[in-house]
Amino acid sequence: MIVSLIPNCALAFVVDHLFHCELDGSGLSWEFAQMEYQNFSFVHGLAMLAFDVVLYGVLGYYLDQVMPREIGLARPWNFLCKRSKSKVIVKDGKKYDSKLGEEKQSSEMVKKGNFEAVSETLRRDVSSLKVRGLKKVFGNGKLAVDGTDMTMYSG
Q1: What is the pLDDT of residues 65-119, one digit of tens each?
Q2: CB–CB of 56/42 below 8 Å?
Q3: Dihedral of the CA atoms 55, 58, 61, 66 (nearest 10)?
Q4: DSSP state string for the chain
């Protein structure tokens, strides 16, 4: 039964069971589908195939999120155990997801004159454009921008 975690093996067992039902001349019915042949039944095989679909779907999603790739950021290996930083903001009867979060405004950079201080009114405005983790690599492999975060406010 554990070998059935490999979809090819589960399918081979199901087809073998089906073959023996047809070989006996009885065909496959609900009665014969539940009958065990070599310690395996047709119904168990179908259940294992359905379990394989779910298992490999979840595994594929996890690996897609964790494995490094050229575009986007890979999540840490334990991202499923971490708490989400998103919160829902309701404004004018509409729900907005603030999953991008708020960037940390460095008071030293504002004092140096590199950035303009952002008022609380603008911070609460949900119609701002937020860019997180921007990365640009040219065709020759030259890295132009790596991990840039910015928020552009309206007005």
Answers
A1: 899 877 767 888 898 888 766 566 665 665 555 554 444 455 666 666 667 777 8
A2: no
A3: -90
A4: -GGGGSHHHHHHHHHHHHHHHHHTT----HHHHHS-SSS--HHHHHHHHHHHHHHHHHHHHHHHHHS--SSS-PPPTTGGGSPP---EEEETTEEEE-TT--PPPPHHHHHHTSSPPPPHHHHH-TT-EEEEEEEEE-TTS-EEEEEEEEEE---
0.70 exceeded by pTM: no
Amino acid (1-letter code) at residue 118: V
Residue with tokens 């119609």: 127
Domain spans in the chain, listed from the N-terminal domain onward: 2-66, 84-152
